[in-house]
Every structure is written in structure tokens, then in C-alpha cells.
Amino acid sequence: MDKDVYQIYIEWWRGRNMGMSSLKDEEILRIYAAAKKNRLSEEFIVLIWNEIIKRKLEDMVLDGSLENASEENLV
């Protein structure tokens, strides 16, 4: 994993452990792409993927679209 992405991950992990996730969506996606590209552990990739899904669901709750969501909208 390139050094910038690794550093972003470390900062995110520290914040996540303190109850804060301050990374922008683009940064989370960069970490996910780098993890897949570098074939990091499946557990790590799932952890990042869960963060992406959590953010998507939070956005849907805030804008009210979760109430009318079908299974296809969530994938």
C-alpha cells in the first residue's frame, strides 16, 4: 500500500477507536481500493467495506430515502 494511503488508514483507525471517523468518503474509498489492490487481509477489507455501507445508510436515513428503499437500492 502506498505510504499516503497507509497514513490515512492509520489516522482513520485512531479516530475510529476514539468514536470519530473523520475521513471523507473519497479517502475511505482510496483505502478500500488500495487494500483490494494490495491483497490485504479479508478482515481489513470487510472492515473498510462496512464503513462504506454504514456511511451510505446514514446518508439514506438523513435524506429520508431509507424509508422507501428496496433491497436493490441498498446494494
Automatic annotation (TrEMBL):
Check the record and name the Gene3D superfamilies matching this protein: Sporulation inhibitor A
Q: Which InterPro entries match?
A: Sda (IPR015064), Sda_sf (IPR036916)
Q: Which SUPFAM superfamilies does this UniProt record tie to the protein?
A: Sporulation inhibitor Sda
Identify this protein by name.
Answer: Sporulation histidine kinase inhibitor Sda
